[in-house]
Amino acid sequence: MKQSDYIVDPRVWATRYDEGGFVSYTDFGRNRHGESVPCALAQQSIEQHKLGAAFYAPFDGEKTVTGEWGFAFLNLDGHYSAFDLQLRNAGWIKNKPKNDEEAVATMRNWLFGTFSVPPYNIAPGASGMGSINGHTLFEHYAASWGYDYVGAEIGENIACYQAHMAFTRGAARQYGCKPIMYFSNWNQCTIGTWETQNSWPENGLPTGGHSMSLLKRAYMMSYMGGAVSFTFEAGGRLAFYGTDRLTEDGLLELSPYGQAMQELVAFSKRNSDIGINYTPIGVALDYYHGLALCAVLEEGPGLRHDKAFGYFKNTAGDEMTRDFFKNLYAGAGFFTWEDYFSQAPEQMHQLNTPYGDTHDVITHTASQKVLNSYPVLVLMGDIAFTPEEVGRYEAYVEQGGTLVMNTAYLPYFESFRAEYKGAARQDIPSGEGTVIVYGPDYSVEALDAILKEQIKKHIPFTLSDEVEYLVNVKDGSLILTLINNEGVTKVYNEDPVTDESKAKTLTVTYTGDATIKQVKELYYGEAVNLSGNTVKTTVPAGDYRVFEFVFE
Fold first, then answer.
1. Tens digits of per-residue pLDDT, 67-103?
2. Separation CA 510–CA 71 (nearest Å)
3. Is the separation of the CB atoms in 222 and 132 below 8 Å?
4. Residue 246's beta-bridge partner residues?
5. Of 344, 354, 541, 329, which Cα lies nearest the Cα of 452?
6. Pairing mode of beta strands 229-232, 23-27
């Protein structure tokens, strides 16, 4: 078995690591006045406990990171950033965009204008720029504006990490940048900390923040999903009990958060070669989607989080997009605070789905090379195709791709429209490929069956029950990561509760053509129950297993 059996173009899909490969960053942060908070003992303890590299916000290695700029633009006009930078001229109350194109241009001009000052110093064309978004899915915008590092903040009160990973990975592959993930342990206005000298006396406590189960599952999704780095926000403080609790060799003693960090970093170091994350389905979303996850907190005149860019009335294509992602990540409370806070929040951050992490989100403007790298493309949103873009998608099908197209897009594609006979679904061969046309206009109801059909065709595993899963491909082996996101509940100011009955007992069957030589479990080193092409395993509540299928 070769990597090329699955990866069409590794030049597009391979993660562009910095020198040294994947990095786990331990963030020290800064205080209100901008001074770094680390001390020599903390730095030594991080190094000796092997918790990753130090990150002094907003500087992550050689890059300068503008964090949560989408949320800041939509919500924080007149407020101050964490570095005492007043955010002026943000949002739509002062800026009245006439259309989507003007909205994107306004955000770009605001971003480069606002963060051109120290300590950020960003500018069009500058190197080492990093972008992070959390409550907005604006990853492609930063990538298209020339950012070298593009990613998402997860943790916090942020819904649907899998969506952020799909948008981040897709943006990185489309624009040739590097995907980064950043985990915040804040949760509903509390942060989980075990410090005896509490840095957050009003809202920092061991029962605050997130469960260590969620932290570990988010890390595994990010690492196996192709991120170049994972940052533990405030990890330089959360990892330790404090200066009055030292180990025998004089280091700061690890807290439960620090123990989780140590375990995760050790895994990524032990398994530094995980191949290329395999996502055969590319969702080609309208570039001007303006999607936000509960982004507008204080809704001013005309502002709502369920509108494109928090401003425009949704078109039928916009509603199609929202319906699609709500179905893809069912239960994630994808767009409304009401949904989010009506459930135990951690149940909505990562979730088990029948579709797995099998897709990237790119935009409809992607190059021919990027389009051709995906075995399957699904068109989505309020797309107005140019003739040049139509030509790229027709060429994609001719060279062997499968294009999944709603009937609403047929007017742009004369040759496909001429072949369409009006059926609820019709498969139209063209060249070496196929166009799957489905209706009615802007409805996504038929996509469930189509996606499952394509996943079965392209993913070489079947699972007997629903979990989150990721597939990575190397020459000679496939790595299957199973994440059980059910069974751990963590609500405001309470200890996490684990329901052991939510364990998943799974039968995993390899459906490819290669001959299995052996299967190894990489995280815990457990013995593997292999019979023929089938592995039986139990993934406890809130836990994961990582299997490498090695072939002859």
1. 889 989 988 889 887 667 889 999 888 899 999 999 9
2. 42
3. no
4. 252
5. 354
6. parallel
Q: In the chain, how long is the greatest CA-to-CA distance?
A: 77
What is the C-alpha to C-alpha distance for residues 523 and 539, in angstroms, rounded to an integer?
A: 12
Q: What are 131-160's pLDDT values in tens digits?
A: 999 889 999 999 999 999 999 999 988 888
Contact 403/373 with Cβ under 8 angstroms? no
> Is this model's pTM higher than 0.85 or not?
yes
Q: What is the edge-to-edge ordering of all strands in the sheet holding 190-192?
A: 186-187, 190-192, 204-205
HEC readout, 111-177: HHHHCCCCCCCCCCCCCCEEEEECCECCHHHHHHCCCCEEEEEEECCCCCHHHHHHHHHHHHHHHCC
Q: What is the mean pLDDT of residues 272-294?
A: 94
List Cβ neighbours of 532 (8 Å cut-off, separation of 6 or more): none
CA distances from 214 to 27, 314, 483, 500 (A): 18, 33, 11, 16
pLDDT in tens, 285-319: 999 999 987 544 454 544 455 678 988 888 999 99
d(CA 427, CA 450): 11
CA 138/CA 310 separation, integer angstroms: 12
Alpha-carbon distance 291 to 334, whole Å? 10
Residues whose CB falls within 8 Å of the CB of residue 344, separated by 6 or more in sequence, listed in order: 489, 490, 491
Structure tokens, 20: 């040294």
pLDDT of residue 261: 98
Token output for 394: 């027709």
Q: Is 184 exposed, middle or buried (0-12, 13-18, 19+ CB in 10 A)?
A: buried
CB 223 within 8 A of CB 261: no
Asked if 3 and 474 touch (Cβ cutoff 8 Å), the reply is: yes
377 DSSP β-pair partners: 282, 403
Chain center to CA of 265: 19
Closest CA to 132 of 87, 202, 63, 182: 182
| CA separation for the pair 383, 365 (Å, rounded) | 10
- Tell me the one-letter amino acid at 27: D
Q: What is the pLDDT of residue 71?
A: 87
CB-based contact 480:471 (threshold 8 Å) = yes
